[in-house]
Fold:
Amino acid sequence: MRRSTLNLFPLFLALISITVLPQNSGKPKITFIELGSVNCIPCKNMQPVMKSIESRYGNQIKIVFYDVWKSENKEIAARYHINLIPSQIFLDENSKEFFRHEGFLSEKEIDKILKQKGLKPKI
Structure:
């Protein structure tokens, strides 16, 4: 009687060759640009919102603040065609703008924007 053996070696090779990639490879999925000023009241009110978003979403998001009333940042305000501060601009992982807002933007509204793009808060 001939004994049948199952050759599992190809399956074994396939299993050990699977590379597990981390869920987030370190590059943020979203860049949140805040254009405002440290001397503007609505802009000051955005500071705790940005800090909270940064702590809740971690490395899924990169937050950048530019004080557009400073001479070294006037070119940035012109590049983004800023007419009112604070202004928020959201860029995808390919640096393409997908959302823009002028004025104060609540944390709840930012959460909606980020969740629509697949980001998940860690807290």
